[in-house]
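Most newcomers find our protein records easier to grasp once they have seen one. Nothing more is needed to start thinking about how sequence determines fold. Here is such a record, shown just as it appears in the course material:
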Amino acid sequence: MSPYRHFEGIPVSGGVVIGMVFRLEPFRTIVEPRDIPDDRIEDEVRRFEEAVEESRRQMTEIRSRARDDLDDEHAAIFDSHILMLEDPLFFKEIVDGIRREKKNAEHILSVVTDRVAALFNKIPDQYFSSRSTDMYDVANQVLGNLLKVRQHPLRQITEPVIVVSHDLGPSDTMEMDRTKVIGFVTDIGGPTSHTAIMAKALEIPAVVGVGALFERVKTGDTLIVDGTGGQVLLNPTPQELKKYKDIQIRLQEQELSLSVMCPLPAETLDGYTIELSANIEMPEEVQHVKIHGADGIGLFRTEFVYLNMSAFPDEETQYRVYRQVVEAMAPKSVIFRTLDIGGDKFVTGLNLKELNPFLGLRAIRLGLANPELFKVQLRAILRAGASGNAKIMFPMISCVEEVRTIKKLIEEVKIELKQKGLPFADNMECGIMVEIPSAAITADVLAREVDFFSIGTNDLIQYTLAVDRVNERVAYLYEPYHPAILRLIHRTINEAHRNNIWVGICGEMASDPITAILLLGMGIDELSMGPIAIPEVKRVIRGIRLADAKRLSEEILQLNCATDIKRMVAAYKRQFT
């Protein structure tokens, strides 16, 4: 395959589209410095202030349009944009720059934005670094007003196109006419960016992070965008066009078939029902949870609240976010995982540099080492629970002592809330994540201390097999079907049920339909996965009997190597394809 025609990126919104390129030039590439005479400096400052005020009005209008076209959760994305416009430090730095450098407002805005965005990009977390896109989105709004650009280029499109840009902001996506913009591709970006979330909500096939497509295309080129597989083909051959047109037809048929599954229960042919929940990390994703027929949220990653802040969020900030999710999902349950920072995720304000961060001060260890910060989050979650059906779980538990310490802190927090007269969920279910071998081996002891288990298979595999799952050199050793993994899962389920608590799985194994059958046969009570995977898992579960799932799991648990297990799984999978 030619590297000049074939590109690979991150799929963020599913579907396959074929169409003509519209190359969207970013405003920031045309900024030039211009000297401002001393007697015109204050006029230039006022020009900047007026552009900011007009941008605030426009952003408020975009927020209203997002609320009308989508929902409150997606509209809330633009709250952070409005806050950026109102940030006195950012505003003051540009005003001071105009006065100090005696240059035009456009140039100073560009310089300051580039510097702040570079700081975001240095943070080694994909979610946090993607906030630079939001920064540029806001800056471009102001820049457009300074340059007197009266109409967004995307509003001038008159025929169906695929937008290609170096980057796109959330406000850019709101300018897209869905009858005209059939897909988009960007050189940079990640799956947790606000632009990616907007693409999913608008159901526009999109691929981000492709690298260097923008510099190679021109308006009028033909493009194939596979938003499901992450492939982008520039000026495809007739054979490639036929292949992807066939894929389009197949995906449309599959989507129609799976859409029927969404409102149905995950019930086997012999009447056994299992819960299928969703993993999310932002309130804006709640709509997708509902659309795909989830029974609840099995994992809300609270890191989002921390990674979106320049300082630790206070109790009220966290409470508002958590309550929003709980109210939106009511009466269905939401399980909040407490802060899981460390390893491959970091936040501002904590020095977490360690030689081996995956085995260091991360997740619950970090919370227990900083009890006052931890209690802020506990109070916020307990308060949010008063508005609906919330549960709480704690990551990276390794021993019963940690659980008992957590329970003492929860009791302290309840006393504090009672003293303040604040309503909270007094009987909220508390669970732990089983993702360390020591927790799986002592599941019988831990089960007597909590209300539920949630098995985090990603870390359980990593820690059991001593494999760094982000290290390409040993990636071949990362094996979900290793007998040790399956036996630890089976043991955890048995001990949970022996002690009358329920147990779920929230790792990637839950989203594979055939693995889901295997886990069902082991007795799992709940599977939690990305919302998009739910209909397919539901389809497979509704096509089997519980007795058959049990028979498969019993046979597999007798096997001694991953190769034999995968061979049996592959044979079973052929029944469903």
Remarks:
- Residues 279 and 299 are 5 Å apart (CA to CA).
